[in-house]
Each structure stands twice: as C-alpha cells, then as structure tokens.
Specification:
By secondary structure, this protein is of the alpha/beta class. It is built from 11 helices and 12 strands. Helix 1 packs across helix 2, helix 2 runs parallel beside helix 4 and helix 3 packs antiparallel against helix 5. The protein is elongated.
C-alpha cells in the first residue's frame, strides 16, 4: 500500500501481481521449478516481522532430495561417518537451506516494505521460494532495489558461513555442513544475479533498460532474451560436461539442464505476460473508465446506502477515512428487506491489497492484474490516498478487446 488512507482486509489471501521467485541449487541438492501463479496449498508457519510464511508440501520433498544426495557426499568426504549420522546431518542441511531461502525471500520483502509496498507473504516450495507483493514496482529504482535485496542477503549469509568454516575442524562432519551451506548460499546469490527473467538479475536488467529507455516493456523484452541466452548457455555447458567427463558428468549436466529449463520456462512466461498486457491503448487513461463513487461511513443504514448506490458505486469507510469495502448491491437489497436500519458494513466486499490500484500505476499492469486476480472490482486511489473511482473488470476487458479489434482492422 502506498497510502495510509486505504486499507484492505484479507491481506494474506488472493493472488498477487508481482512475484520474486528463487531457484535454489547447491552442491548437495538439486534444482527447483518455478512456482505457478496459482497459490498452492501449504502450511501456515506464522509470521516473521509481520510477513506471513507458508510452506508448500513439496518443501518436504526438498529435504528428502537433499538427504538422498547428501548422504553419499558426507560418506565420501568424511570417511567412517555412520549412515545414521550422515542422514541426520543431511536433514539438518536441508532445513538450514530452507531457512536460507526464507532469509533470501525476506530480503525482497524487507526492501519492498522500506519502499512502502504491501507484502502479501512468502511461500517455500520444492527447493525454492517466492515473495508475493500486492503490486509491481512503479519505478526502475524500486524494481532494482527489491530484486537485488534477495541475492544480497544470500551473499551475506554465504560470507557468515565462510567465516564459520575457519572456526571448525577441517575434515569433520560439522566442517562439511558449514562448507556446503556457504557454497549453497553463494551459488544462490550468483545464479539469481544472472541477467535473465525470471531471476532477480533479470529484474535488475529490466530496471536498467527501463531507466535508460523510459519503457518498462523494453526492459522486459531484454530480460526475456537474456533468459533464452542463459538457458542455451546452460545446455551447452551440460553437453561439454558430458563430452569431457562422460558418465561422471551426468549429475552436474542434469542439474545444468534443469536450471536451463527453469530459466527458459520462466522467461517464456514473462514474455507471454508482457505480450498480453502490452495491448492497452495509449490514448485511454485508466481513470477515464473508472466509475464514480460515493463514500459513506460503515455504520450507514443499508437502506440509505442503497439510495446512494442508485447513481454510483458506494465505498464504505471507517471513521478515520480508511476504505473498508464496496457495497454489495444484491446482498444489500436482501438485507434492506429484512432490516433497513442494519449497518451497510454487513454487506460490503472488503478490499484486498491486490484490488487497490493508484492513478499513476501503469494501465498495462492494471490490465494484467485483472487476469491473475480473482476480483470483479478494483479500487482506484488518487495521490492523496482518497478513493477516486471503481474499476470494473468488464470495463477493462472491453477496452482491451476494443484495442485488439482496432489493431486487427488495421492489418
């Protein structure tokens, strides 16, 4: 949220419009696929600094994969280690890697909050994680800062573990555990800084091109191309490893191919999203399709609220001016028939962070939000934080369809 005047209930629900996915790769683990846009089921683990944390069931599989790969590594590097101890240390490694991923994602969240953006939450899944923000960054500076914060945290963690390596006895299980954690966080930081969407480095590249050209779409195109280039390079690297090492190179080559798939699929998704959202006509300001609103206190009798709703949408506000929700007309009529003096707040649809947009937001991003957010109405807020109108999904879709029709007729 960018203003103290607008509040939304259900901040932990819904589908956000901006994701910062993390792919994790380490010498003792495998690779992770990007999380789909649909929020998966998971286990709520509470809040850290007010940020909700959810763990997907697939994260448990992460630990199993790390155990399967870690036990033989521990047994080989530290001869004489019992199977039970190797399994226990591999489980600890998996859990600590999960904590490292969480710290990486919280880095994104912290940066977003410093910039005044609403954080929906963090989800951990198969060897990876994702930060969910209520909306996309509004400037190249915001994009770059939020994107770079995650790798920066991973780099700091890697440095801390490297310092800890010096305090442990070389050749012991503890030394190997700390060494793997240092290497893992270092690889996470470096890999995620590659100039390719959907990685953090791709977002930094987009911010740079956006700043230089004034066109966010041009930045997205450059970062998507970067994704394909990185994916091809990773596949080439895998082929070279197989030619050089033969069967001994199967594991690293397989990891490289999985990394390439992650980047290629993510880049393709970003490209499709950009193609869909780029259809907003430049001559149609988003405010021009907003429906006028009347602001009424939440305790307004529902019968009076319905009278106001005859001419415009009704936004219900708290005593301090914070918008609570939109009057649900059918529900309001039913309630008015039973009790016309009942407070209108009983039949309001609460605003969620992802259903609130600012008058200076990019119309293309707002249009994209209607695709990924399950909501029929969006609250348009002006620079002072006051409701400026209600955007209906149907109106946004109508503008997009009209734009496509005009484009088709010119071809």
């Amino acid at each position: 949220m960018h203003s103290s005047q607008v509040s939304a209930a259900g901040a932990d629900q819904g589908t956000p419009t901006c994701h910062y996915p993390l792919m994790v790769k380490s010498s003792a683990s495998g690779t992770a696929a990007p999380r789909p846009r649909e929020s998966p089921r998971g286990f709520a683990m509470g809040r850290i600094g007010g940020v909700p944390v959810v763990v997907s069931p697939s994260w448990v599989l992460s630990v199993a994969v790390i155990v399967a790969l870690g036990v033989p590594v521990i047994s080989q590097v530290v001869p004489g280690t019992g199977t039970g101890l190797a399994i226990a240390m591999s489980i600890i490694l998996g859990v600590l890697l999960g904590v490292s991923v969480l710290a990486h994602e919280l880095g994104h969240c912290w940066a977003a909050r410093v910039l005044g953006m609403q954080v929906v939450g963090v989800r951990l899944y198969l060897l990876g994680g994702v930060s969910e923000l209520s909306k996309a960054p509004r400037s190249p500076r915001e994009e770059a800062i939020i994107a770079a914060a995650g790798p920066a945290v991973s780099a700091v963690i890697a440095g801390a573990f490297w310092i800890a390596v010096a305090a442990t006895t070389p050749g012991t299980v503890g030394w190997l555990l700390v060494m793997l954690l240092a290497l893992s966080n270092l690889v996470v930081a470096v890999f995620n800084l590659l100039p390719a969407l959907p990685l953090d480095g791709g977002r930094v590249l987009r911010a740079g091109v956006w700043s230089a050209s004034g066109n966010r779409g041009a930045g997205t195109t450059a970062a998507v191309i970067g994704g394909y280039v990185i994916a091809v390079a990773l596949v080439g690297w895998a082929v070279l490893m197989l030619l050089d090492a033969g069967s001994a190179g199967l594991l690293p080559a397989g990891i490289a191919v999985a990394m390439a798939l992650f980047v290629a699929v993510g880049a393709a998704g970003e490209g499709r999203q950009h193609g869909r959202s780029a259809g907003w006509p430049a001559d149609v300001p988003i405010a021009s399709i907003a429906r006028p609103v009347a602001q009424l206190p939440t305790e307004t009798p529902v019968a009076l609220a319905l009278e106001a709703a005859a001419e415009r949408d009704v936004v219900l506000t708290e005593a301090d001016g914070v918008a609570r929700g939109l009057l649900d007309i059918p529900a309001a009529r039913a309630l008015a028939d039973r009790d016309p003096r009942a407070p209108a707040s009983l039949v309001s649809r609460p605003w969620r962070p992802e259903t609130i947009v600012l008058t200076d937001d990019d119309p293309s991003e707002i249009a994209e939000r209607t695709r990924v957010v399950d909501a029929a109405d969006f609250l348009l807020v002006d620079e002072s934080g006051q409701p400026a109108g209600v955007l209906r999904r149907e109106d946004i879709v109508a503008v997009l369809n009209s734009s496509r029709s005009r484009k088709w007729s010119r071809q």
